[in-house]
Amino acid sequence: MAAEAAAKAAGGDAGAEVRPSGGDEAAGVQVPINPTPNQQRVLDALVRRGQAMGWLVPMSEVTLGRVLGEGEFGVTYLGCWRHAKVAVKIVRLRHAAELTSFLREVETMSYIRHPNVVPFLGACLTAPDKLSLLSEFMDGGTLQDWLHPGGLPAPGTASGTILHPVKPLVERLKMAHQVALGMCPFESCRPAALHRDLKPANVYLDHTGVARVGDLGLSRRLLDEARSSLTGETGTYLYMAPEVMRHEVYDSKADVWSWGVMLSECITCALPYGHTYMTPVQVAMAVAEEQLAPEVPKTVHEEVQLVLRLACQFDPEMRPDFASLADMLGHAIEHMEAAQNGRPTLLSSIQSSLLGSWSGAWGWGTAYPRAGQGQAAKAGPRVRRMPGAAEAQQPTAQGQEGREVKEGQQQAQER
Fold first, then answer.
1. pTM of the predicted model as reported, rounded to 2 decimal places
2. What per-residue confidence (pLDDT) applies to 301?
3. What are phi and psi of 201, to 5 degrees?
4. Residue 6: inside a domain, yes or no?
5. Can you give the residue range of the structural domain that contains 207?
6. Annotation-wise, does 8 bind a ligand?
7. How many angstroms separate the CA atoms of 350 and 334, rounded?
8. What residues contact residue 57 under an 8 Å CB cut-off, 6+ apart?
9. Half-sphere exposure (CA, 13 Å, Cβ side) for 248?
């Protein structure tokens, strides 16, 4: 099974984050990369596009400062460019996979402009030893830091008592709502773009506290010829969709699952699946076998419960798109804020009908498939059972009483 193979390859908890395999070069050694013909074509096209659109940046114009972070594919510095603070990500060219990842990130970010996406400023593509990407500096930290100011609990431990102050639930839901809005342009651009590593650590907050999706190192444009090739494990185990873990063909609905896990984390303010005492690899195996999904707290608003269940359906086709999820969660937040302020809303009278229409539109039943039933238990549309002939002929107590009253009135009139 794919999940078991992943667990063996991961070698335990160290495999909580999965990246595409590279080449034969030793890890950590800086080596010159000779681009493949396809990579060179992409690079040349990006250079021409950057020159035409004005985002091709000479590295000589950028001043590097302190290190902001270090990831699998490179180091991010606080920089200065044209008298503005910027985040400068310089890639490590250890093998061809990292060059491909960088080119994908530049391509994706150069196309997408949205208030909830980290603003792309430019890229340096002409210095082979310092390929870099410039984005607006987000001085609010990450959503992970915002949710867990006291630090993350160790993998494989229960959620337990949260020692740090917890933000109000509505504020946490607003963060998830902003992330959903930020993912909408990924789905709507043509060809569609996949993030493939959506998690709180890859969502950044600007100086006003607005959440912005970033770190697109694993992003991929969903070209027609690539639809049948997206089958490898990419991302982080705790947020990875079951079809990705099973090495099945996947699309943007894999990002929807990751967002659903993030929504669960925003609701509980605890590490996903922390109540299970399972390691990330064990979680991945259980999710791949459809034995485990993010918990849905019964104490939150029913519309929020619905959004979470819809986002984390095991069947990708049953998951709504980000635009629909953002709309549903936005309505839920409005209702919660109105209830807190003690005032009715115009939508309160039709809240239940909206809830029913959303459920019916996506064929959602009542809950996840029961554990232990595997893929055969995928949620399907609710079927209303029609009464049989014998049942239809049997009058109800209320109907019988109504007929007796009507017959009595007729007899009185005849007299």
1. 0.72
2. 94
3. -70, -20
4. no
5. 138-358
6. no
7. 13
8. 81, 121, 122, 123, 124, 134
9. 16
Tell whether 46 and 153 lie within a shared domain. Answer: no
- How deeply is 275 buried, as exposed, middle or buried, from its count of CB atoms within 10 A (0-12, 13-18, 19+)? middle
Our count of domains for the chain comes to: 2
Distances (CA, A) of 57 to 34, 44, 78, 154: 22, 15, 16, 41
- My answer on whether 322 and 195 are in the same domain is yes
Per-residue pLDDT at 212 exceeds 50: yes
Mean pLDDT of the 120-144 span? 88
Higher-confidence position of 89 and 101? 89
* Tokens coding 187: 């789905």
Question: Distance (Å, rounded) from C-alpha 377 to C-alpha 368?
Answer: 9
Q: Structure tokens of 124? A: 């340096």
Could you list the active site residues?
197
| Per-residue pLDDT at 353 exceeds 60 | no
Are 217 and 73 in contact by the 8 Å Cβ rule? The answer is yes
Structure tokens at 282: 């064990």
Angle at which helices 253-268 and 322-341 pack, to 10 degrees? 20
Measured distance CA(251)–CA(196) in Å, rounded: 9
| Dist. CA 31–CA 165, nearest whole Å | 46
- Ordered alpha helix ranges (H), 155-221: 169-188
Confirm if 377 and 369 have CB atoms less than 8 A apart: yes
Inside any domain, residue 405: no
Q: Is residue 200 predicted with pLDDT exceeding 80?
A: yes
Same domain, 69 and 216: no
pLDDT (tens digit per residue) in 240-277: 999 999 999 888 899 999 999 999 999 999 889 988 88
> Do the beta carbons of residue 230 and residue 220 sit within 8 Å?
yes
The Cα-based distances of 134 to 79, 138, 357 in angstroms read: 9, 12, 44
Residue at a domain's end among 137, 154, 173:
137
Helix ranges restricted to H, 165-319: 169-188, 242-245, 253-268, 280-288, 302-311
Distance, C-alpha 333 to centroid of its chain: 19
User: Within this chain, do residues 119 and 241 fall inside the same structural domain, yes or no?
Assistant: no
What SS3 class is residue 62? strand
- Helix (H) or strand (E) segment spanning residue 192: none
